[in-house]
Every structure is written in structure tokens, then in C-alpha cells.
Amino acid sequence: MRDWKKIILWSVLAIFAFFVIDIGRYFFYPNISKLQKNRPGKTAFMEYREDTWQAKGIKKKISVSWASLSQISPYVMKAVIIAEDDKFWSHEGFDFEAMQKALEKDIKKKKFKVGGSTISQQLAKNLYLTPAKNPIRKVKEAILTWRIERQLSKRRIMELYLNVAEWGDGLFGIRTAALQYYGKSARDLSAREAATLAAALPNPRRFRPNGRSRYAANRAERIYQIMVRRGIIIEEYDDVIQEQDKDGEKNEAAENPINDLSGGNTMPESF
Fold first, then answer.
1. Looking at the predicted structure, is the pLDDT value of residue 230 above 60?
2. Which of 19, 62, 133, 212 would staple 170 via disulfide (CB 3.0–4.6 Å)?
3. Domain ranges (residues) in the chain
């Protein structure tokens, strides 16, 4: 009887030690400081997406491309902050008020979804973890978020996030999204286009920017109106710019019918 108790005790201790080591290693690994100057390459979430396709027998590759902050419309960053993390510039990686509200919703619905993640938390998950929703993964995410906030500037965190976030099924990076949905560079995205893209971020495969989801459309409109109220954009001016863009596209199509039929801009190369 005593032998069985010892076996059980040692088994429990072994399992506990495994989890301690598994979680503790994220205090030292991976090397986050290298992201100060280097691009991350293929992320854990990108690999997860490809593995999911492979398991389903889908022959497909992710599309990903890079754009520095100077090559991205300032409307994109502002729209994304409004949509995903309004306290981005002031918090140190965690929005405890948002996390509390999300936890209260989880308790009420009796589901473990744990929303309320900041941009820094989402970046940590996208770079290094899977989308699995469990307490162990959230602890790892918290450690990585803490390290990211201490080793990277806010602007660098934002730049990385915009380039590794998924904007559609296998479409990664704001440059990829701009080309796919609007046929233009990330720098030329309008305020409304930025709001539409930001509205898709909670679930870009379900709420595609070019989809017909009423929820996504309403969310995009709310983001846009907040941008107007905050003086980020002047609505009348933005409407004029969009009309000019449309006229320019029509003129270009008329002058270059062959290019227009062939698709003009092509998607960036896949991994």
C-alpha cells in the first residue's frame, strides 16, 4: 500500500516538475531581443495554419509580406488600436480591466475563452504559441508578453503585430491584406479601408474584409466614427480622397485594359 502511495506521490511531483520546466523556460527562451532589428520569419501561428491545412489534406501555402511602419498608412495603426487595444500606449502589456470583463463573460457563459488580450499579448501568441485556449498557454503568453514589453519599444511591437497578424485565411501582414482586398499598398489605405481591416481582426477568417458580415460592417463603422470623433480624420476630406482614388482607378483601367484584366498587382510571394 505504501509503495502505491509513493508511486502516486512521485508521479504527481514529476507532472508538476514538467509543467514548471515547460512554463519556466519562457522566462529565457526564445531570444526576444533579436526582434529589435530582425524580422521574425515564419511564426508559430503561421506554422499552425499550415499544419491545419495539411491535416485536412488542403494543398495551400500562406501568403506573407513585410511593411515597415513608414510604409503603412497611419490610419491602420490608429484603427487597430481602437479595435483591439485602446490603452496600448499606456499599459505595460496587460489591460486588467478588459481581462476582468472578459473573465466575467466567460463565467457567465461557462466557457473558457478569455478575451481582453492586448496587442502585446496577441503578438506573443502569434509569434510563439498556438491558439489553444487553456490556462497553461495563457501563463506562457503572460511571461512572453512581460518580456516583449521590456525588450521592445511600443512602435516596434506595433510594427511586428501588423506584419504577423492574420487578415484572412492564410493571409499574413498588412501589406498582404492591402494588396488582396484593395489592390494597393499598405501606405495608401484610406481611413475607411483601415477601419474595415481592423474590424476583421478578432476572427479574420470569419469576418473577411470583403465579406458580407453585418457584424463586421457595423464594427468597421463604429471604428471609423470613433476616428472621426477623435479628430484622426476629417470625414468630408476622407470622402473626397476616396472619390479621387475611385476616379483614378477608372482612368487607369481605361488606359491599361490589358493590365486591368490580368489583375495588375499580384500577391506577394508565399513561404
1. yes
2. 62
3. 44-262
